[in-house]
Amino acid sequence: MDGSLPTIRLDVATPSEINLASTVLDQERQVLLLTAANNGCGVTTSALTMVQQLAAACSGKVVLIDASLSSISVTRQLGLEDQPGFLDLTAADSTASLDACVIELPSHPFHLLPLGQRRNDSRGLSTEQLRQLLTQLSDRYRFVVIDGEAIYTGGDTLTIGSLVDGVILVVRAEETRWEVAQAAAQRLSQAGAKLMGSVLNARKYYMPKWVYDHL
Questions:
Q1: Of 15, 54, 134, 151, which has the fewest CB atoms closer than 10 Å, so is most exposed?
Q2: 26: confidence class by pLDDT, cuts 50, 70, 90
Q3: How far apart are alpha carbons 37 and 51 in whole angstroms?
Q4: 15-20: long-range contacts (C-beta < 8 A, 24 or more apart)?
Q5: What is the pLDDT of residue 4?
Q6: Are 114 and 74 a contacting pair, CB within 8 Å?
Q7: What are phi and psi of 114, to 5 degrees?
Q8: In what order do the strands lie in the sheet with 195-201?
């Protein structure tokens, strides 16, 4: 593998994404989870943009954790389904090595921890193993960004959210109802997550964009 991402399009960062990256730097939060209320909001695109923004803005290394079961996840797009990764490291009976799971991407400014192998049983991740993994990664990387499952589809998202330094909620313009986004934010709060802000994705401009910039 040469570390290229040929099928992943990295969109130009939106103002909300740039402002969030600045907020992260100002508050020095290190481990971040990006999630959404439902699937299809562009969490993976926003996570990729975030790791690039953070890597460009800091002197330390940045790692992206793929915790998404989506068919268009980074792991699947790179053909890394057989590579050990996040799910292996957070299993209760884990014997996986972090060094064997993390992948360097020479043509990109961040490392990748792919999804890993799905278990055949119904058990979710081990909270203790997850806590240990995040501690290990925090010792190695300036920023750890997690591309997470949607709150209403991912059983482990709230658990992950309760252990990270900050959660970013991705909202898709004109598709995510505000009541749904508000309920998702409340679930995160009840789980003990620290909601930092949101990314408004796929915003449509009904007037020329320069008009909005001057309003």
A1: 15
A2: low
A3: 21
A4: 16/197, 16/198, 16/199, 16/200, 17/46, 17/49, 17/50, 17/53, 17/199, 18/53, 19/197, 20/50, 20/168, 20/196, 20/197, 20/199
A5: 44
A6: yes
A7: -65, 175
A8: 103-104, 111-113, 62-66, 143-147, 31-36, 166-172, 195-201
Cα 155 to Cα 141: distance, rounded to the nearest angstrom: 26
Per-residue pLDDT averaged across 38-50, rounded? 87
Neighbours of 55 (CB within 10 A): 22
Q: What is the residue type of 15? A: P
Q: Extract the runs of DSSP E, i.e. beta strands, from the chain.
A: 31-36, 62-66, 103-104, 111-113, 143-147, 166-172, 195-201
Higher pLDDT, 70 or 63: 63
Q: Which residues pair with 112 in a beta bridge?
A: 64, 103
Whole-number pLDDT of residue 152: 86
Tokens of 54: 């953070």
Half-sphere CA count of 130, side-chain side, radius 13 A: 18
